[in-house]
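Example 227.
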Amino acid sequence: MTNNILALEKVHHRYSITRDIFNDISLTIEEGGFYFITGSSGAGKTTLLKLLSSTLRPTGGDVFFLGKNINNIPQNKIYEIKRQIGYIFQDFRLLPHLTTYENVALPLRVQNKREKNYKSDVIELLSWVNLEHCVHGYPNTLSGGEQQRAAIARAVISSPKLILADEPTGNVDNFNSEKIMRLFSEMNKMGTTIVIATHDQNLISKSIVNRKIIEIYNNSIRTIEEL
Ligand SMILES: Nc1ncnc2c1ncn2[C@@H]1O[C@H](COP(=O)(O)OP(=O)(O)O)[C@@H](O)[C@H]1O
Ligand SMILES: [Mg+2]
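Predicted structure in complex with adenosine-5'-diphosphate:
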């Protein structure tokens, strides 16, 4: 048995033949860990999250999710892995024809949960991320920071065992940024594995115990453990 939720083995990735993004990187994400992915703009943070979430298949090497090699999983079964991951997109990706409430409740509806059993949880979470005034609003009526908080709420509402967050505080003020980090920290204490991509050194220096930092540089990575 492994206690790794994710592992990359000698993963190579490029979008075009002229430039490698990753050259044979290996990495493990342990269950219950708290990770930051850092690197300059364009270094490959979003690409790494997409590889970790099976959104993108690498051009070489292997990705393992809970010990299973993703290369052996047919494309039409990949959703079974993705369903176990709460992914916060850098560009939010809320569905425009659904209200904030409906967007956040969507992962629960997909799991065939009954609204009477989750309605109050969704409202409570929305009020926790200070969106009670946007519950019935559509995404195009929300500010960038409000959309980001709705996207975070949607990713965490179903209590996935893994959260992958791409610059989750990039559009919010300090107050909400601290609240979001507190939410991730509390979820991590309950056992959720958290991986946050960010270029913001301030976010990393905030008090997360046992965090690990995955730094991307020169098409490669190194993991720094801080205790
Ligand atoms: N779909 C794509 N097609 C071609 N190039 C891409 C694509 N996505 C990202 N890239 C390139 O890959 C590099 C890494 O991008 P990205 O992972 O988004 O970096 P980061 O998130 O660290 O800013 C950038 O040079 C970017 O232009
Ligand atoms: Mg990015």
